[in-house]
Amino acid sequence: MAESHHTCHPSPVPRHFFAVFSPRMNLLRLLAWPISLLYGLAVVIRNKLFDLGLLPQTEIKDIGLIGVGNLTVGGTGKTPHVEYIVKLLHPKYKVGTLSRGYGRKTRGFHLATKEATTLEIGDEPKQFRHRFPEEIPVAVDAKRVHGVKKLMAKFPSLQVVILDDVFQHRRIKPGLQIMLTDYGRLFYKDHLLPTGFLREPKSGASRADIDLSRARLAPLFARLLWRVLSPRRHRPRRRAAEQRDGSAARNHSITSSARSRNASGIFRLSDLAVVRFTASS
Question: Which residues pair with 213 in a beta bridge?
Fold first, then answer.
């Protein structure tokens, strides 16, 4: 029997669009597609109200704030990245961490102690408390602005607070925002809840100063973070970065507030991941 040959033509529709209607997708998620549209509309309106200043957003300039978060539900490595940042900064800077404390039964602000249970402070803060030295305060508070101010009052020498899982908490404005994404499930190929795993539309990634894929990126991340935190300005080495627009990446000091972004670059590490890094002037 002669084999038939068919000419393949590229589809004008993005390939990941069909993932929504793939047979692998649960029927319930397919039926939830209209709910995703309504959910996305509500989140877009909320973000726009914050962008226009109609909803209050607090910027605390007396201390360095580093936010670590993501666009999706589920694990993207926030907890180990918080630990890694703390190890990079301590003991050169006086560092503390602030989490919401998911899973705890308590409310309000609480300082974590080694005797505290997960019902009192949550899983991640308990892990932080056991891994960090005692001089690093670990706190929980669902209201991050209130939590940061309480930490500053209790520890006047504190210089930096790492805000865990704060990307959607728009009421506080970190000076440096780090967004994580799973390399096996990149956010720009995902869809809004409940159809997909996105907490907000993909456009929310524009608020990030550093975007990292969860892969073996520790050495590269260390270089990026120190480049941002250094008070001096550096030009990225040619072997470590390709400038997309030909403009040099510039850096923050540790206590600087977020400013308008005007420099960007693409950092590649083998074929493991692509990191988009934006910096402030």
Answer: 181
